[in-house]
Amino acid sequence: MRQLVLPVGAAVFVLAALAAVVAAARQTGSGDAPPTPGAMQLPRIAAYATFTVERVEPGRLVVSGGSVSELPVGAETRAWRLEPADADAVQTGAAIAIIGVPNEVRNAAIRAIIVGDPGSPGPAGPFGGHEALGERFALPMVVGTVVRVEEGRAVIRTGAGEATAWPGEGAPVFRVREVEVDDIRPGDRVGVLLDRDGRPDPGRGLLVMRGE
């Protein structure tokens, strides 16, 4: 399976708090000792697989890079495409997911900032936003709604509190757009959720982005 390598140097997106991911231990030490920080808590995510589209044929996508060679699709199949954008896409009310790869120093290298429509329950339908990246360890580190943007600072409301982020020029921002299956092209990378038996289930939708 091919990996997408985003320019880490360009990912100037500083998080003041990984509120949805990093949980500081709430136990106080003895005396005046500061609280002991807890381990990084990784979010629970749905199982998925990532494929590369080789051919688009009536009723199916011929794919490579995974456990199956084709994905059945039809006019009823929903698809969400990740399109490159700039920091201006991060606007008040937008659903947002900040995708990162956790590391050993209790931090994360940011790989993508996924921005969905205002008022939507998530940035990309049932997807977390990382499923089409083709990067095995990428996870949605912060997921929530942008409540305000001021002086280059975005405040994000999450289920665990607020996180503050500063999107810089060249940050890997992707805007989500729902598209028809006919929009999918050879070379696209698609993320697909798995069913209980571990099989790709395109009936739940496809997350699409242009491949390398």
Helix coverage percent of residues? under 10%
The poorly predicted ranges are 1-42
> What is the overall shape?
globular
Radius of gyration: 18 Å
Counted up, domains total 1
Strand content: 35-45%
- What is the residue-mean pLDDT, rounded to a whole number? 80
Distance between the termini: 12 Å
Main sheet strand line-up: 1-10-9-8-6-7-11-5-13-12-2-3-4
Q: Tell me about the biggest sheet?
A: 13 strands, mixed
Compute the number of strand runs: 13
- Along the chain, the helix and strand elements come as EEEEEEEEEEEEE
Structural class: mainly beta
What is the number of helices? 0
Layout of SSEs?
Blueprint: E1 13-15, E2 48-57, E3 60-64, E4 70-72, E5 79-85, E6 94-102, E7 108-118, E8 139-150, E9 153-158, E10 161-167, E11 173-179, E12 188-193, E13 206-210
Parallel strand pairs: 5-13, 7-11
Antiparallel strand pairs: 1-10, 2-3, 2-12, 3-4, 5-11, 6-7, 6-8, 8-9, 9-10, 12-13
Keywords: Signal
Signal peptide: 1-19
Protein name: DUF5666 domain-containing protein
What key attributes describe this structure?
212 residues, disordered N terminus
Plain-language structure description:
The protein is mainly beta. It has one domain. The chain is built from no helices and 13 strands. The protein has strands at 13-15, 48-57, 60-64, 70-72, 79-85, 94-102, 108-118, 139-150, 153-158, 161-167, 173-179, 188-193, 206-210. It has a 13-stranded mixed sheet, with no helix packed on it. The radius of gyration is 18 Å and the shape is globular. The two termini are 12 Å apart. The model is unreliable at 1-42 (pLDDT under 50). It comes from Tepidiforma thermophila (strain KCTC 52669 / CGMCC 1.13589 / G233). Residues 1-19 form the signal peptide. Keywords: Signal.
